[in-house]
UniProtKB/TrEMBL annotation, chain B:
Signal peptide from the UniProt entry: none
Keyword Metal-binding belongs to the record: yes
GO molecular-function term, one example from the UniProt record: metal ion binding
Entry keyword set: 2Fe-2S, Iron, Iron-sulfur, Metal-binding, Oxidoreductase
Protein origin, superkingdom: Bacteria
Lineage, top ranks: Bacteria, Pseudomonadati, Pseudomonadota, Alphaproteobacteria, Hyphomicrobiales
Protein name (database record): 4-hydroxybenzoyl-CoA reductase subunit gamma
The keyword Iron belongs to this UniProt entry's keyword annotation: yes
Record-annotated 2Fe-2S ferredoxin-type domain positions: 4-80
TrEMBL record, chain C:
Alphabetically ordered keywords of this record: FAD, Flavoprotein, Oxidoreductase
Stretches assigned to the FAD-binding PCMH-type domain: 1-178
One Pfam match: CO_deh_flav_C
InterPro entries, A to Z: CO_DH_flav_C (IPR005107), CO_DH_flav_C_dom_sf (IPR036683), Diverse_Substr_Oxidored (IPR051312), FAD-bd_PCMH (IPR016166), FAD-bd_PCMH-like_sf (IPR036318), FAD-bd_PCMH_sub1 (IPR016167), FAD-bd_PCMH_sub2 (IPR016169), Mopterin_DH_FAD-bd (IPR002346)
Name this protein carries in UniProt: FAD-binding PCMH-type domain-containing protein
Species this chain originates from: Rhodoplanes roseus
Keyword Amino-acid biosynthesis tagged: no
């Protein structure tokens, strides 16, 4: 891929100007980040601020008998020490509603009330003048807890959560068609028991929140917000009994999101309460050990899935029962991950009948929620394992079994009688078989097969695997932006979306620049600030480019129309004869002879302008975009692995991600999203796992235990094929989100490749793949060969 | 606790500060001196977000106490650019899209600059080995490797 | 993850250091050298020393030189000092090979060989080297100096023979005869991670057979150990892959992993055999990947 460096950035300059959309232009975000001038949560400080430190549960489950705060309170310099009794009026952390009912009783209190349910649960908070001192004081808070047995396996029968409620808040049931008839008519029935380990996003920046109450203006502010600033503001305002207009959240730089960052957590609420009560700014910065036990986990599911197929391997029906390990509480996502797993499991295949029961169960572990490609990473692994098993059963290869079952492009839009995230699942557009063909060709599948066979013959343990998937993106319902041209001709784009480092400022600026006719570098994107825009939906679910991008185009066109109309007055021309190019309104075909800059137009429309008349002043517009449906990007992963015969370790030699994004605003950014997402997907496939001992003590509490890939563990060759075969009909630019496709099928493709290397179809039943199990399998194979 | 007055030389500038002996170098740079470009990612020496150069060598600023850095030449990300001109390594990171959220970036920049200054003839494989010292959760490393290789190939850091 | 308070002592000489240590030893005083293990342990508040005697500014402890047939390494010599061979013989090459496996570069620029030995982590590469080569450790205190063999010093899993008022001042690694060959093999989950198993094989090959065989296994048990039974099998034998496989099997049989989890223990026993076999293949220069005697350029 060719990247256009910033200094040679392409901008529209004349009628033959290259378009901005589709160009790999350099990022607007980079300069301050490269110079150490970013502003992350930890970089925010105020004079006289207090530091909050959280005292966390050290046992997985137990009744709180007492919490002795006296020694801590007695320490000089300690401003306050709170337990649940001190914040009794603060309601538990709420969740964003879906159709699933009955979850309220399982929400997490901001400080544990009576019972602790996981190691890391906040028990108390202390406030001191310095982070070091706060940690000293926190050590003096001594809880007395009567331990109870910990429930650590969501597959075990539910136990009592509290009197009258068990640890299974809900079972998510979806389905359609006559599943019983499908299984009765089947030539073959394939059943698998598959599980995915506990992983999480683990951004490099830990969480942080700095709250300040400005009594002079009666405004409460919190810095360190991310992802869902508006929703979090609205909910916290409700919890604290404030009006939202007196409570603002500010998103600065965010050191990675991945689903976990920017949700509403107990600590956010506590710093805000403290700033109000203590009348001093309050800063809380999570440390890494806290981060690994306190920030959302994700992924952990076990599926018992069965497929009914005909003699040619065509699917007649799928039945799935799965156990979703939610951890100790329901958090802000409610049951969304389990809901998406159930609703999106079928991926790109035609499945006439389907029945799923998702057991949403609580355990005594860190609460779980979304992590990049939530519900899809897990179910793609499960579904693609199933497809490989079908192929094996009927004696066809991995490619053919998929070709026989893919939904055809002629069937688009393809409505499944299912819902996910509260919207009906309608696959909006796609040429799944077409992309499979392109991916195989790009990877040189046949040559690779031959190479692998040759190397195997010489004793190497190498294999190839593939996984197909459908992602989802562009979650509605709406997004708005406000665009303003200031009197210097600079453009401010205010959006309620957020940035977690993915490059959204640049992408929105490109869309704006193209629609308006200006250099994208003149556009300043303001995001994640509740004081700047009334509504917003933040950054998640691969929605920003789709939703805010579409709104941006609408706003930019409106500003363009205004500018042309005003310039027509100024130039005494017909607006239809005018064009906006490189920030100037010019006569079409008329060169620069008579033109006006956007700065002049903005001044022309200034309230103090003598031309303004009675029209509303300012060169600005809002744009709103609405969507009832998600759109569905899709892709193919192909992995080639080599196994170390001695250690059982898996080395990924080559990897291809082919992904159709409908339309690529900035291919460089999409490539970056895909490769970064792949690193996380490979981590979950091979290295990352939050494990617990029998008492529920977490065993991965440092970066020496939670193993994320380094530069060394990345594949020797990573190839990314971005296609635009199936633009979404649901938005004017045809956009689909690109944030999660690199992650989605990594577990599936690696599992298939490991099976292939070992020559043991169906070997991988759990992620991450265990080298010890591979060694055992190799030993069995040797014994088998010898006997 | 008893504080001690020390002088730290950061990017050629002397800072006279009072710190407790237990205060780490990274916290001192960030909180006491106000140079927040160096980031705190794990505080146990694994992630490398706090990597700075100490007498030219990359070190984890979370695994040193500030009092130990007295008399040493400390370099941080804030010292890389010359006015408006980015350091070649910074420019290469931008040109190759080697950063997304940017949180790990200062650590990677200091690591790569520190190593390339001392070992301009570094091989491609050694670059991967060196970069495996630090963690990035956004990029998947591929573009970081490309950026550093490009700088090494042009011999722009020496 | 902020360390608990401590008093920082900065001695200017080794004598002053041991005097300071003697004064604070009873009050949980510790030596601070590279700090690459101690500081994170303090950040996690798993260690809360009240006093740290910081030896980083003592010139005599940066000593690294050959004397009396041994390489003498002072307590403040960093891992990174070994990136290039510190002496022209096989020992220098061996240390330059092994050092690349110790964590990552920015850790190696601060961490020290003696610090690793004094910490006695079972997965420490230097502990394996010291055990296998029979290093002698010089311990200092106000009570005097004593010299102790690495095997007697390392008492297993983070325990050593150091008295609270004693510090490890120097380690002496015996130089190896010029014809010595070596092979080191380490298995770790990711680049730079703690070893899951490692082996160091050292021998000479005379007249087609192996002599002076030393074979050490690390990271599997509570402390590294020589594998005498395997050494006996190898001594005087021709270096051949089959023999090395048998030596690996002996190692697997002898290894007693500390892990409680049976699956992990089985795996580690297996890895013990793998690393022994591979280390021997490297030592005999029949490693397939050509990495046996590569002299690493390293980072200067």
């Amino acid at each position: 891929m060719t990247v256009v460096p910033a200094r040679a950035a392409m901008v529209p300059a004349g009628t033959n100007a290259p378009r901005l959309i589709g160009q790999p232009v350099a990022r607007l975000e980079d300069p301050p980040l490269l110079r150490g001038e970013g502003c992350f949560a930890g970089d925010v400080s105020f004079p006289h601020q207090l530091h909050m430190r959280v005292v966390r549960a050290q046992v997985a489950h137990g009744r709180i008998l007492s919490i002795d705060t006296q020694p801590a309170r007695a320490r000089p310099g300690v401003v306050a020490v709170w337990t649940a009794a001190d914040v009794a009026e603060v309601p538990p952390i709420p969740f964003r509603a879906t159709k699933v009912q009955g979850l309220e009783a399982y929400c997490q209190p901001v400080l544990a009330r009576g019972v602790v349910r996981y190691v890391g649960e906040p028990l108390a908070v202390v406030f001191a003048n310095d982070a070091y001192a706060a940690e000293d004081v926190a050590d003096l808070v001594v809880p007395e807890i009567e331990e109870r047995p910990a429930l650590l396996d969501a597959g075990e029968p539910p136990r009592e959560f509290e009197p009258g409620r068990d640890t299974e808040p809900t079972v998510i049931r979806k389905g359609y068609g006559d599943v019983a008839a499908a299984f009765a008519a089947a030539a073959h029935v394939i059943e698998l028991d598959l599980s995915v380990g506990r992983h999480s996003g683990v951004p490099l920046e830990c969480r942080g929140a700095v709250a300040r109450y400005d009594a002079s203006r009666d405004v409460l502010e919190m810095y360190g917000a991310a992802k869902k600033s508006h929703w979090n503001r609205d909910e916290m305002a409700r919890m604290l009994g404030r009006s939202p207009s007196t409570f603002h959240l500010y998103e600065g730089h965010v050191g990675g999101g991945f689903g976990v960052r920017g949700e509403l957590y107990p600590e956010d609420v506590l710093v805000c309460v403290a700033a109000l009560r203590l009348r001093r700014p309050v800063k809380w910065i999570e440390d890494r050990r806290e981060n690994l036990v306190a920030t959302n986990h994700s992924r952990q599911q076990r599926h018992r899935i069965a497929a009914a197929v005909d003699a040619e391997g065509r699917i007649l029906g799928i039945r799935d029962q799965f156990f979703h390990d939610q951890g100790a509480y329901v958090r802000t996502h409610g049951a969304r991950v389990a809901d998406m797993a159930a609703g999106l499991l079928l991926g790109p295949y035609r499945v006439p009948a389907y029945e799923v029961a998702g057991h949403f169960r609580l355990t005594n572990k860190t609460p779980a929620a979304t992590y990049r490609s939530p519900g899809r990473y897990e179910t793609t692994f499960v579904r693609e394992r199933l497809m490989d098993a079908v192929a094996q059963k009927v004696g066809i290869d991995a490619v053919e079994v998929r070709r026989r079952n893919l939904v055809a492009s002629a069937e688009m839009p393809y409505a499944r009688p299912l819902d996910a995230l509260g919207t009906d699942v309608v696959l909006d557009s796609g040429d799944y078989a077409g992309l499979l063909g392109k991916a195989l060709s790009r990877a040189g599948w046949d040559d690779r097969k031959a190479e692998v066979a040759r190397r195997r013959a010489s004793g190497e343990i190498v294999g190839l695997g593939l996984g197909m998937f459908v992602e989802k993106s562009g979650l509605g319902p709406s997004d708005g932006v406000r665009l303003t041209v200031d009197p210097s001709g600079c453009i401010e784009l205010v959006t309620g979306a957020g940035s977690v480092g993915q490059g959204m400022e640049t992408a929105l600026a490109q869309i704006c620049g193209e629609a308006l006719g200006v250099d994208y570098r003149r556009i300043r994107v303001v995001r994640g600030r509740t004081d700047q825009i009334e509504f917003g939906n933040g950054a998640h679910a691969s929605r920003v480019t789709v939703m805010s991008g579409s709104a941006t185009q609408i706003a930019a066109r409106a500003v363009r129309e205004k500018a042309l109309a005003a310039a027509a007055e100024m130039l005494q021309a017909d607006p239809a004869d005018l064009d906006l190019v490189d920030g100037r309104v010019v006569r079409r075909g008329g060169g620069a002879r008579a033109s006006v800059g956007l700065d002049e137009v903005a001044r022309h429309l200034h309230p103090s302008s003598r031309y303004i008349g009675r029209r509303p002043p300012g060169l600005s517009a809002e744009g709103w975009f609405y969507s009832d449906h998600m759109n569905y990007p899709y892709g193919v992963h192909i992995a080639q692995v080599r196994l170390d015969p001695g250690t059982g370790m898996v080395h990924v030699e080559r990897y291809l991600v082919a992904y159709d994004v409908g339309r690529a605003v900035n291919p460089m950014l999409i490539d970056g999203q895909i490769v970064g997402g792949l690193a996380q997907g490979l981590g979950g496939a091979l290295y990352e796992q939050f494990t617990y001992d029998a008492q529920g003590q977490p065993l991965a509490t440092t970066f020496a235990d939670y193993l994320m890939v380094t530069a060394r563990e990345m594949p020797d060759t990573v190839d990314v094929l971005i296609t635009e075969d199936a633009p979404s009909p649901l938005n004017p630019l045809g956009l689909k989100g690109a944030g999660e496709g690199g992650t989605n099928a990594a577990g599936a493709a690696v599992a298939a490749a490991v099976d292939d290397a070992l020559g043991r179809p169906g070997f991988v039943t759990a992620l991450p793949v265990s080298p010890a199990r591979i060694v055992a399998a190799l030993a069995t194979a040797r014994t088998g060969a010898a006997s | 606790m008893s504080e001690r007055e020390i002088v730290l030389t950061v990017n050629g500038v002397e800072h006279r500060v009072r710190v407790e002996p237990r205060r780490t170098l990274v916290d001192t740079l960030r909180e006491t001196i106000g140079l927040t470009g160096t980031h705190v990612g794990c505080e146990h020496g694994v992630c490398g977000a706090c990597t700075v150069l100490l007498d030219g060598e990359p070190v984890r600023a979370c695994l040193m106490f500030a009092v130990q850095a007295e008399g040493k030449a400390i370099r941080t990300v804030e010292g890389l650019a010359t006015g408006d001109t980015l350091h070649p390594m910074q420019q290469a990171f931008m040109d190759h899209h080697a950063l997304q959220c940017g949180f790990c970036t200062p650590g990677f920049l200091m690591l790569a600059v520190g190593v390339l200054e001392r070992q301009p003839d570094i091989t491609d494989d050694e670059i991967v080995d060196m970069l495996s010292s630090n963690l990035c959760r956004c990029t998947g490393y591929v573009n970081i490797i490309k950026a550093v290789r490009a700088v090494a190939a042009q011999g722009r850091v020496a | 993850m902020k360390p608990a308070p401590f008093v920082h002592h900065v001695p200017r000489s080794l004598d002053e250091a041991v005097e300071m240590l003697a004064r604070v030893a009873e009050d949980d005083g510790r030596i601070l050298a590279g700090g690459q293990t101690l500081v994170p342990t303090m950040a996690l508040r798993l260690a809360r020393p009240s006093h740290l005697v910081d030896i980083n500014t003592i010139p005599e402890l940066t000593r690294i030189e050959v004397a009396d047939g041994a390489l003498v390494v002072g307590a403040c010599v960093r891992h990174a000092a070994f990136h290039r061979p510190v002496e022209p013989g096989p020992l220098g090459a061996l240390l330059a090979t092994v050092v690349r496996h110790i964590a990552h570069l920015p850790i190696r620029t601060r961490g020290t060989m003696c610090g690793s030995l004094a910490n006695a982590d079972p997965a420490s590469e230097w502990c394996l080297v010291a055990e296998t080569l029979g290093a002698m450790l010089e311990l200092r205190s106000v009570r005097g100096t004593r010299t102790i063999a690495a095997d007697a010093f390392n008492l297993g899993y983070l325990e050593t023979a150091l008295a609270p008022d004693e510090m490890l001042a120097f380690v002496r690694l015996p130089l190896l005869p010029a014809t010595t060959r070596f092979g080191f093999e380490e298995v770790s989950r990711r680049a730079g991670d703690y070893a899951q198993a490692m082996a160091l094989a050292v021998c000479e090959i005379e007249g087609g057979v192996m002599r002076a065989v030393r074979l050490g296994l690390g990271a599997v048990e509570g402390k590294p150990r020589r594998l005498a039974e395997a050494e006996a099998l190898l001594e005087g034998a021709r270096p051949e892959p089959d023999l090395f496989r048998r030596a690996g099997a002996v190692a697997s049989g002898l290894a007693e992993p500390v892990e409680a989890d049976e699956e992990v223990a089985v795996y580690k026993r297996h890895l013990a055999g793998v690393v022994v076999e591979r280390a021997l293949l490297r030592a005999a220069s029949i490693a397939t990947d050509g990495s046996s005697h590569e002299i690493i350029r390293g980072v200067p």
